[in-house]
Amino acid sequence: MKLDEFLRLNAPEDLARISLAISDAAVTVSETFPFKSGLVGDVNPSGDSQKAIDVYSNEVFCDALISTGLVREVASEEMEDAVHGKGDLSIAMDPLDGSSNVETNNPLGSIFGVYSDPLPCSGRHLAGALYITYGNSITVTLSFGKGVHRFVAVKEGAGMSFQLVGLDLKVPDEPKVYGIGGTRTEWIPPVRGFVDSLEGRGMRVRYCGTFVGDYNQVLARGGVFAYPELVGRPRGKLRVLYETAPVSYINEQAGGYATDGRRNILDIEPASLADTSPAYIGSGPLLRELERLVSSSTVRTGA
Ligand code: F6P
Ligand code: MN
Questions:
Q1: Domain of 277, in residue numbers
Q2: In angstroms, rounded to a whole number, what is the distance separating the alpha carbons of residues 131 and 19?
Q3: Alpha-carbon distance 256 to 145, whole Å?
């Protein structure tokens, strides 16, 4: 089944139109990867170096979303302030996740949270979420509160269409892979201890450096992706509105659990658009165990 038909049958009309606008824009963005990998010598509001492709993908997705007439605002990791439209939905997006992978041709991604309320607000106000992975294929993984479904781009005539390849995806309870951002010496002690135990349980490390690429492996195989609390960086690195809340929503719809170490990521009330939080996301039983360890430990520094 194709994405447009699936959405017509399974999603509210506004979310269907937004999803189609995002999917078409993702194809446009991916076509420019080979041409746009030079630095423009600027930094984005969160301090990462910004590349031409970051600027370009931000513009393509922003224009596509505003043109639907359905969005009140689009906030983006690449912009200090939101862009406003005339609709009722708020979009928070990371238009090009893992952009340091452009040169190395490792996977890239795009992440979108569709919120019913004005931003900033918690993930409890998500009406839906989507992420794109640009890997060996372009895939769209989405949820509107009724399970997680995946589509892959295939050539159709002169353009592309998206075909259903995964219906009601579930993150396995039995964990097989882990990927942890930051460096081992920066991880707070309970995280270090927990990660040290994982290979003894038969798990393998998988880390590609793109949040949604790494999360995608966890969704397929079970396990954990984390960008943890770091010694000296208690709020971690990943952004709540643009990155961790939308992926946590999808993960929860897939039967998993996501925590900031103390509470469900969906309960975080960000005070500003760019707020970050530690993030631990993946299989339910493993993540509950990790949350217990992190929340009960008072040790936050040193070896
Ligand atoms: O968006 C930030 C990001 O690029 C994520 O996609 C990725 O998970 C993380 O940074 C990688 O960070 P580090 O290089 O510190 O492991
Ligand atoms: Mn990102």
A1: 177-296
A2: 10
A3: 14
> Looking at the predicted structure, is the pLDDT value of residue 63 above 80?
yes
155 and 35 share one domain: yes
Same domain assignment for residues 215 and 99? no
> Is 302 among the domain residues?
no
Compute φ and ψ for 183, nearest 5 degrees.
-115, 150
Q: How does pLDDT run across 153-198, given as a tens digit for each residue?
A: 999 999 999 999 999 999 999 999 999 999 999 999 999 999 999 9
Question: Across the strands, what pairs with 83?
Answer: 74
Whether residues 11 and 150 share a domain: the answer is yes
What is the Cα–Cα distance from 63 to 165, expressed in whole angstroms?
28
Q: Name the residue with tokens 């893992």.
A: 98
Position 264, amino acid: N
Measured CA to CA, the distance from residue 25 to residue 75 in angstroms comes to 17
Q: For residue 189, what are its two tokens?
A: 């002690």
- State whether 159 and 95 are in the same domain: yes
Rounded distance between C-alpha atoms, residue 46 and residue 80, angstroms: 9
Q: Is residue 76 a contact partner of residue 246, using CB atoms and an 8 Å limit? A: no
- For residue 37, report the distance from its CA to the centre of ligand 2, in Å: 16
CA-based torsion, 257, 263, 267, 271: positive or negative = negative
Substitution candidate for ligand 1 out of 102, 195, 238 with most atoms within 8 A of CB = 238
Pocket test for ligand 1, best of 224, 227, 242, 243 (most atoms within 8 A of CB): 227
Other beta carbons within 10 angstroms of residue 14's beta carbon come to: 18
Q: How far is the CA of 218 from the centre of ligand 2 (A)?
A: 17
For a pLDDT cut of 90, what percent of the chain falls above it? 88
